[in-house]
Design brief:
With 188 residues, this protein is an alpha+beta fold. It has a single domain, classed as Ribonuclease Z/Hydroxyacylglutathione hydrolase-like (Metallo-beta-lactamase, Chain A). The chain is built from seven helices and 13 strands. The radius of gyration is 16 Å and the shape is globular. The relative contact order is 0.16.
Length: 188
């Protein structure tokens, strides 16, 4: 059975992190209370467009897996490396990176896992190569890209399933943990 740990929970652009959670979001002091965040979204459509959301998830069983490393700032500011260090790990200890899709807030920090296996849908790679060559060079090519097109078993307990809709080649990750099935759904 695979264990799952949310390393970073991101809402938008941050100025500071504390154990993987944002302290400031574009200058708005949020305590991450859902009613405060909902109030902000209800009162400003522009904020909804600004605020992305993802979870960087660490899965450990026979392989060490990172799902959605996060926005580029998370990698360049050392936030993800700090969170890994809290687990006694470094980026070199990770075996596999999985992107649920190739938007910058999910895949922008792939670069810290240079040379590692990257599991991504072939349609997502094709779409990104034609639309955003710089992103492809920085966040996809430094890894050993494993393009999939169908549901794929990654380890005995971890499976990637295709879930198109939000983007071409969207995927979810299903993990059989000791507590039951856990789904990492990106922006599905």
């Amino acid at each position: 059975m695979a264990d799952v740990d949310v390393l970073i929970h991101e809402f938008g652009s941050f100025y500071d992190f504390q154990k993987g959670f944002p302290v400031l979001i574009r200058g708005h002091q949020l305590l991450m209370a859902s009613e405060e965040f909902s109030h902000l979204l209800e009162n400003s459509f522009d904020s909804w467009m600004i605020f992305g959301s993802y979870n960087t998830v660490f899965i450990e069983n026979t392989k060490r897996i990172i799902v959605d490393p996060g926005a580029g700032e998370v990698g360049s500011w050392g936030v993800l490396e700090s969170r890994l260090k809290e687990l006694g790990l470094t980026p070199s200890d990770i075996d596999i990176v999985i992107n649920t899709h190739l938007h910058g807030d999910h895949a922008g920090s792939n670069f810290i896992f240079r040379g590692k296996r990257l599991i991504v849908h072939e349609k997502a790679v094709l779409s990104m190569q034609s639309k955003w060559a710089e992103f492809t060079e920085a966040c996809i090519k430094p890894l050993e890209v494993d393009e999939i097109s169908n549901d794929t078993q990654i380890t005995e307990d971890v499976k990637v399933i295709t879930t198109p809709g939000h983007t071409l080649g969207g995927k979810n990750v299903i993990d059989n943990t000791p507590e039951g099935l856990v789904a990492m759904v990106g922006d599905a």
